[in-house]
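Write out this protein's structure.
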Amino acid sequence: MMIPVKNESDCLMVSVVVITWNQREDTLECLESVFRITYPNFCVVLVDNASTDGTREAVAAQFPQVEYVANPTNRGFSAAVNQGMKRGLERGAEYLFLLNNDTIVDPAVLDHLMAHATDESVGMLVPKIYYYSHPNVIWSVGAGLNVWTLEKDGEVRGCVDEGQWETVVEREHVTACAVLLPRRLTDKIGLLDERFFYYYDDADLSLRVREAGFRTLLVPQAKIWHKVAQASGGVDTPYERYWMGRSSVLFFRKHVCGWRWLIIFPYRLGSAIKTTIRLTVRRKFNVLLAYWRGLLTGLADS
């Protein structure tokens, strides 16, 4: 699909919002790819959750055009994203492109997303996401939603892209790793729920967008590459499992009520038991302890 060349005056403004926390090299590589974007009217807001690895100085030296927001403490993903979104909206952006700092983007990513963004029924648009380490292997193309369990349904992950996802389609669950939001959506449903420090923010947002009557589109011509779980130190680390456990409890306590607990509770208990067995077999006892601390903290906080 060829994207026509446009002048800045022809294009609605997009604010690219990136969050970082002690990932200087990842952040610099991400920003380098962002400033190769061919869409002519965008700004970049970088929110730093108290990095101590020289990120601020490196970004200032290499990308002085970035609006840098430095937090004195780690406020978590959702709160930091909200800071960046507010800055973008204050600068007059009509669209917000939320982007993980452990990604790189195709130069035409915004051109392709914006080609479908002005439809008033659309609330979110997402690109096709590949693994950074395996550039032709799909990490996410969104998913459906199981209305009984509120879990992702029909998720595609780990398969080689052979052209099977080339059509713009509606999705019910998408990742906040890279998502384009119009101002009309934030005007109606607000920003991210800051109780989700890490994880499940995207599941919560996907449900809220759906409940507000908006559609979510996968635009597969738009592409990015993701390093996966860099901010939490990687999959099955104590930090990652703690926040996954805590946020999962908060999510289901927020969205489930009444008789639906008859389905959700045994399903979630089975998931916790399965995770416990998996971590025990792998002798990751410190990770297991962190996971159960997260579950219990989530119960106490919800």
